[in-house]
Amino acid sequence: MLKAYESFGISKEVYERGEAVLKTLEARFRTIDEIAEYNQLKVLAAMQKNAVADYHMFGTTGYGHDDQGRDTLEKVYADTFHTEDALVRPQITCGTHALYIALSANLRAGDELLSPVGRPYDTLEEVIGIRPSVGSLAENGISYREVDLLPDGGFDFDGIRAAIGEKTKLVTIQRSKGYSSRRTFSPEEIGELIRFIKSVKPDLNVMVDNCYGEFTCREEPSDYGADMIVGSLIKNPGGGLAPVGGYIAGRADLIERCAKRLTAPGLGKDVGASLGINASLFQGFFLSPTVTASAEKGAVFAAALYESAGFKVHPASSAPRYDIIQAIELKTPENLSAFCAGIQEAAPVDSFVKPVASEMAGYPDPVIMAAGCFVQGSSIELSADGPMREPYNIYFQGGLTWQHAKIGVLKSLQKLVDAGLAL
Ligand SMILES: *Cc1c(COP(=O)(O)O)cnc(C)c1O
Questions:
Q1: How far is the CA of 379 from the centre of ligand 1 (A)?
Q2: Cβ–ligand 1 contact at 238 (below 6 Å)
Q3: What was the pLDDT predicted at 20?
Q4: Which is the closest atom of ligand 1 to the Cα of 362?
Q5: Residue 362 pLDDT more than 70?
Q6: Which of 259, 222, 292, 288 lies closest to 70, judged by CA?
Q7: What pLDDT was estimated at residue 364?
Q8: How far is the CA of 366 from the centre of ligand 1 (A)?
Q9: Taking the complete model, does pTM exceed 0.90, yes or no?
Q10: Which of 168, 172, 121, 173 is nearest to 143 (CA)?
Q11: Nearest ligand 1 atom, CA 97
């Protein structure tokens, strides 16, 4: 094994550090496998309940009327996430789009959106209009309020109560930390927040941005009272096989509005050709629990390895985990670039490319990204990205197999060692 690693450019020192760290993670990996097993049962049961059949794998073109594969897939999502309905479509171009649909479909001029967990993910700033943008919710007369987390990371219940008013119609809760150093919330914690919010104003609808969280726990926020959960198919639930798409799962009346926003009033869910990708979406969802587990093992391994090299990591390797993202404070732009170079060199696709930071639509700072993916931009595949700003956090995620995640993490550390880091 060592020889194979050495011929891949990984030194004995780095390989052995990895093996030593791995020995400490056995119980942790067992728990991750148990969650995957539980979720595999959930997905399988939903597929059998809905009698997923051979002919569902074929798609439609044109309008897409009577696409039984597409309609059955949506029932499988709804049953897995224990919701009344779901919208799962290749016409949803990405996670931000899915979130925009869910928000814009369920808010009208004069309504207010509330984030009780501080500033949301970078790309939502233009969706909401926190940064002025053409077509934003703000431009359409929808106001926005946010309540920061308390200094200890907890929910500011008094502040939230005070922020809920006559106009407040929808609450958005982001499960994952995104590009920040805060914690990721567990579905239970989100449930506690939802219970509080509904005790203040029972008819408020709550949407959870579930990106990167799916299948990392036995339950999802929809099991704890979320009216809609939203995510991207080129993250966890696509299992690496979905070539495009997003989902919204939730209460039937809210999903109906989402469908009519995605297509048009009067059309809703009836149109939307699946264009031959039904099989990838079914198979990807079937694989998602184990693919997510592989990515999570990669994240835990990265946390433990970089802790051992003296870096601050979020979450800590021993902390409970509710998404697949691992943040590592790399402290310098040079370390950030070296880390990304290592992930890129370990990729099956585009391994010869050198990542450099650049401006990206929707993001306020230059971002450096490493990804050599079968599906462009897929972040359930091994990938890393970080905004070029203090404290030079890298956000690392994905890995279709645990073995590949491990190789990539070791390669990243090798690059830091080559650049002068002492182990
Ligand atoms: C990825 C992500 C999004 C946006 O998804 P895109 O597919 O990149 O548009 C939104 N919120 C969170 C928490 C995410 O991780």
A1: 10
A2: no
A3: 98
A4: 9
A5: no
A6: 259
A7: 80
A8: 17
A9: yes
A10: 168
A11: 9
Per DSSP, the three-state class of 414 is helix
Report residue 126 as tokens: 């233009």
C-beta of residue 291 within 8 angstroms of C-beta of residue 359: no
How remote is the CA of residue 2 from the centroid of ligand 1, in Å?
Answer: 37
397 touches ligand 1 (CB under 6 Å): no
Three-state secondary-structure class, residue 287:
helix
21 C-alpha to center of ligand 1: Å? 31
Does ligand 1 come within 6 angstroms of the Cβ of 395? no
Average pLDDT, whole number, for the chain? Answer: 96
All structural domains of the chain:
2-40+289-418 (3.90.1150.60), 60-285 (3.40.640.10)
**In percent, how much of the chain has pLDDT > 70?**
100
CA 222 to each of CA 82, 109, 254: distance values in angstroms, whole numbers, following the listed order: 7, 27, 13
Q: How far is Cα 287 from Cα 302, in angstroms, rounded to an integer?
A: 23
With 0-12 / 13-18 / 19 or more C-beta atoms within 10 angstroms meaning exposed / middle / buried, residue 108 is exposed
* Ligand 1 touching residue 5 (CB < 6 A): no
Q: What is the pLDDT of residues 257-272, one digit of tens each?
A: 999 999 999 999 999 9
- Nearest partner of 176 among 222, 137, 211, 141, judged by Cα: 211
Q: What is the pLDDT of residues 94-128, one digit of tens each?
A: 999 999 999 999 999 999 999 999 999 989 999 99
CB-count burial class (<10 Å; 0-12, 13-18, 19+) for 267:
middle
* Token pair of 15 as six digits: 């390989």
Q: Which of 211, 324, 367, 381 to mutate to test the pocket of ligand 1 (most atoms within 8 A of CB)?
A: 211
Token readout for 18 is 């990895």
Atom of ligand 1 nearest to the CA of 96: 9
Mean pLDDT lowest among 116-125, 162-171, 299-308:
116-125
Residue nearest to atom 12 of ligand 1 (CA): 211
